[in-house]
């Protein structure tokens, strides 16, 4: 037979499959109604295995693996369809609904906020972008930001979470797992680094350059122009600027924000020295309580997955089935066992959608570890 004849045969089979799939989904809807009436949970892995064993038992061995993948898709889409008709329960979903019942107000303007660093730091600048009138307390490190929020010393905390040039701020992700806080707002802030010295200093006399390690990585190409200079890490870009300002040395320079030149009386020798012109850092605002404000369009969670083939793929399929766009997937080592990981997901979604809340409930009930990090607006 030629190719056209074979394709006609496939068209006939596809039409039959489409008709049977429609019939199957109609029965799935009735299954959902029955589950709801009898308070039966959505997922039944034993039932799925029973079906899979039965339908693949008589199949040729060389197509069983492919059939398994087809039926995994059938199970997944069936559960997603049923989820629209069910009201799944979980502790996290109840917490979300309690928050939503209070309404989704505008983000507050006059609040206490904790930032790492000092005045002129990028956290300071991002904070002022996200919060209209913040009363800022500065602390030494990111862990202190979490502690200040958890202890109620400040209402909110501002932290960098990832950079478009050098990737995730892993230390902050590890602290998110360690502390009990929620994300309530985020922003992508354009980072424009400047090379600063004391007024009148000749850049050829610079023997040491200081900045935060992230800024040093982001400006690595520019730093190649100073092969003999010592490159030193500071706790913060603004702290580096203050250090240069207070030093009696004329061979010391820093990489910092251009705003720091005015704040600390320094001179800008060169602007925009970052490797990538489109250099953005994503900052988050954290809170001790779960709060959902107006225009919340992003959700963050973290989970552990079963250590078996396809577990991550199955997780990703849950999002694609609901048409949800994953914007971030990060893995970090977790626990004492080798190759055990904690996965962080960011995705675009409206937390008020019932199928989204049901997805949260399903993950809460089935994942070994599940943490809802927040539903918030990215401005």
- How many strands, which pairing sense, and closed or not: the largest β-sheet? 10 strands, mixed
How many beta strands in the DSSP annotation?
Answer: 15
Put simply, the count of helices is 13
What does the radius of gyration come to?
27 Å
What's the CATH H-level superfamily name of the domain at 88-104 and 292-379? ACT domain
> In sequence order, what are the helices and strands, one letter per element?
HHHHEHEHEEHEEEHHEHEHEEEHEEHE
Q: Which percent bin holds the helix content?
A: 40-55%
Q: Mean of residue pLDDT?
A: 93
Shape: elongated
Structural class comes to alpha/beta
**CATH topology label of the domain at 88-104 and 292-379:** Alpha-Beta Plaits
CATH class of the domain at 88-104 and 292-379: Alpha Beta
Describe this structure in words.
The protein has 379 residues and is an alpha/beta fold. 42% of the residues lie in helices and 26% in strands. The strands form 2 sheets. Strands 1, 2, 3, 4, 5, 11, 12, 13, 14 and 15 form a 10-stranded mixed beta sheet that branches. Strands 8-7-9-6-10 form a 5-stranded mixed beta sheet. Helix 3 crosses helix 12 and helix 4 packs antiparallel against helix 13. The protein is elongated.
